[in-house]
Amino acid sequence: MHFHILVFILFTFIFTYLLFKLFLHPKEKSINNKKAPGPAKLPIIGNLHLLGTLPHRSLHSLSIKYGPIMSLQLGQVPTIIVSSSKAAELFLKTHDIVFASRPKIQASKLISYDSKGLAFSEYGPYWRSVRKLCTLKLLSPSKVEMFGPIRKEELGVLVKSLEKASMVGEVVNVSEVVGNLIEEIMCKIILGRSKYEQFDLKKLIQEALALIGSFNMADYVPWLGAFDLQGLTRACKRVSKSLDEVLEVIITEHEQATKIDKTHREDFVNILLSIMHQPIEFENEHNLIIDRTNIKAILLDMIVAGIDTSSTVIEWALSELIRHPRVMKNLQDEITNEVGNKRMVEENDLNKLNYLDMVVNETLRLYPVGPLLIPRECRESRTIDGYFIKKKTRVMINAWAIGRDLNVWSENADEFYPERFIDKKMNYQGQEFDSIPFGSGRRRCPGIQLGLVTVKLVIAQLVHCFNWKLPYNMSPSNLNMEEKFGLTMPRAQHLYAIPSYRLAGDAKHE
Ligand code: HEM
């Protein structure tokens, strides 16, 4: 019985699709507008089969054939892939407002309260208000500085445990300890604490990250979504229910603590609760009164966007430093010259460490954690560089390809060579397009400052306090550097290394 219904539905869709192709397509063509070049597509799936397991690499190869503005059909979604810095500037600066929206994806609808957070909400008064709120109240320079003691404390704990490991020559899973460190830091900043006996917050966050990053057929061939063939709809609903329960507990706990003690520590939950039920913005008579659902959606976005990003950058930087002893030595020398060898690095040392900046810029160029940024959606039909782009077209910016463009970065573009940034200062505020690890334009990352200070401090500390060598006498040049594709782009294999403590015996490290 069910089988017959399924066959009937499939035939109905295929029939509708063919009708659409026969009668609508010629009409489209008759409009004299040039489409960006792209590969031939298959019925129903379009070009989905060309993405492969590492879409940023497959799309880069295709762009060499079809050009920096390439047209694809992903299932039923017309898509433009942007693969050069010049083209990115057109989409993210010249015509930024046209491409400042996000497509609705199923995972964000189900997990992130119908996209009521920041990262996946469509462009408009709601997004503008929430963005302003997050930039001013949560991620401003003064707030980033205010959370400095949390970074210092957590990093101190890690250094102590690594010092113990170094005494016995233990092999450390660097990817795991860095991941845990960033999770601890971000959960304390966002939620006030990271450990809860009642539930496994870390596991839930990992599940949510995996679901938001997964490739869901429902987003590309919506009529297939009804069948939930990948089981992702069910998984999203289950994780969303558990996360909601957890957020309710955390918020209620904060509300009760505030009633008892007015001098509570500031974290994102408390900051947001202090403005609950208040209008946060008046714009063309749009008056957003922030409620509990808005707060939960914003908190979730901060957790999802804030944790994996920073830890992935640190993991890649340490891998490249271990692979390049010359660069590692230059960096350690710079830090020792500024800080000495009797104390740990402090946050206010960071602005004197120019070589560290270059190492971080080079890591972000080669390993942008969001290789295709977060997809954009075209808000109105527009002709860009002679190519007609229809309203609702999805736009993906291949930041990975842009950072490795031979025309911009010369023939050694694939090499880790921080010195290329000696005369090229990067501030990621939307002026440069040769490397765009934080995106650009209105939707660029609002957590740049928090991300950069965390990444720089952790890298500086770990190479200042320790020398690192690969286990089992592995040669640095043999370290596997393959990546995995997802919401972020981490190493395919965890990084393992042996630390040896290098500060003076009486050095202070708290
Ligand atoms: C080194 C660390 C980080 C990197 C490399 C990074 C990268 C990115 C990228 C590529 C985007 C998409 C931009 C676009 O579409 O143009 C983004 C968006 C975003 N990031 Fe970050 N990010 C980092 C850290 C953070 C942190 C620490 C937070 C907050 C706790 C954060 C919050 C967000 C949010 C909320 C968005 C969505 C913005 C919007 O759509 O308006 N990020 N980030």
From TrEMBL:
Gene Ontology CC entries for this record: membrane
InterPro entries: Cyt_P450 (IPR001128), Cyt_P450_CS (IPR017972), Cyt_P450_E_grp-I (IPR002401), Cyt_P450_sf (IPR036396)
Names of required cofactors: heme
Keyword match Membrane: yes
Residues given in the record as heme binding sites: 445
Pfam family membership, one: p450
Gene Ontology MF terms: heme binding; iron ion binding; monooxygenase activity; oxidoreductase activity, acting on paired donors, with incorporation or reduction of molecular oxygen
Location(s) in or outside the cell: Membrane
Keywords for this protein: Heme, Iron, Membrane, Metal-binding, Monooxygenase, Oxidoreductase, Transmembrane, Transmembrane helix
Family statement: Belongs to the cytochrome P450 family.
Protein name: Cytochrome P450 CYP736A12-like
Organism: Cicer arietinum (Chickpea)
Gene: LOC105851638
